[in-house]
Amino acid sequence: MNVLEGEREERRRIQFEGRPEWTRVEGEELVLMDGRRVLESQAHYLPPCDPTKILCIHLNYESRRIEFRASNLVTPTYFQKPVTAVNSHRGMLNRPADCQYLNYEGEVAVIIGAPMKNVAPEDTWKYIAGFAAGNDVGAQDFRDTDAGGMTRVKGMDGFCPLGPGIVRGVDVRQSTLRTYLNGEMVQEGAIGEMTFGIDYQLADLSRHITLMPGDILMSGTPANSRPMQPGDVVEVEVTGIGRLTNTVQDIPKPAHDVGHHPTDTDSVRRVALGGDWWAEQDALKQQGS
């Protein structure tokens, strides 16, 4: 049975009595596999998978392409996050004290359930363990040095929260993605509006890369990614799948003065501020004409 079929099923992983435990949701409680229960509000969540790799698409929503005034998309391009970027529901998002452009990007996270190589698009759903809400967090301050590679922009520790759990039995193609910042909706996009569907992305990547159980595909974000501030609460909701919550906090900047430092340039602001930056540039041009 593929991941889209059957009744909705959700599994969440928590830390309980010093060890990881898988649970199912029952009302306001999480039920462990041995029958014990814990209040959901008191649960300490863990990431719902242990990936060997995290693969992410760059542009994949028409709204975001329009926002950046990019050319029509012909083929997808990808980047990787280190596995140390994985974070969980209610985990903290750490903004280094020398950075100011820590952006949210609400996405559907796809978790692989079986070894996958050279699979046709229509067969990809058989290899998926489930879906989760995800946030492709990025410190755009490093955009000038990392460019398309995203190693530091998107790869810092904890910059890939997902959860609360893994869900199957939901046709995610009919879902809608919404991101909320301090309770206000800041992103919205139907999954069906993706330029390259989840099946296409997995088939494309698995032509040459073996995807393993636990691996994650971050499938793209709609328009209106913007910076977050310390104390902000960011939530990513995928209808039928779940709602992921994280809180931003400042941490000290790196202790050693080595390597490329965060920058605040037009190229950084163009990505961090998106349509707001373009609107500002248009206004400046009108003033100068």
Report on the structure:
14% of the residues lie in helices and 35% in strands. The chain has helices at residues 62-67, 143-146, 198-205, 266-273, 275-288, and strands spanning 9-16, 19-26, 29-32, 37-39, 44-45, 54-57, 78-81, 86-87, 92-96, 102-103, 106-112, 128-135, 138-139, 160-168, 176-181, 184-190, 216-218, 227-228, 233-238, 242-251. By secondary structure, it is mostly beta strands. Strands 1, 2, 3, 4, 5, 6, 7, 8, 11, 12, 14 and 17 form a twelve-stranded mixed β-sheet that branches. The chain has a single domain (47-253, 261-288), classed as Alpha-Beta Complex (Fumarylacetoacetate hydrolase, domain 2). The mean pLDDT is 96.
Put the structure in a nutshell:
This protein has helices spanning 62-67, 143-146, 198-205, 266-273, 275-288; strands spanning 9-16, 19-26, 29-32, 37-39, 44-45, 54-57, 78-81, 86-87, 92-96, 102-103, 106-112, 128-135, 138-139, 160-168, 176-181, 184-190, 216-218, 227-228, 233-238, 242-251.
SSE diagram, text form:
Blueprint: E1 9-16, E2 19-26, E3 29-32, E4 37-39, E5 44-45, E6 54-57, H1 62-67, E7 78-81, E8 86-87, E9 92-96, E10 102-103, E11 106-112, E12 128-135, E13 138-139, H2 143-146, E14 160-168, E15 176-181, E16 184-190, H3 198-205, E17 216-218, E18 227-228, E19 233-238, E20 242-251, H4 266-273, H5 275-288
Parallel strand pairs: 6-17, 8-14, 9-20
Antiparallel strand pairs: 1-2, 1-5, 1-14, 2-3, 3-4, 6-7, 10-13, 10-18, 11-12, 11-17, 12-14, 15-16, 15-19, 19-20
Helix pairs in contact: 4-5
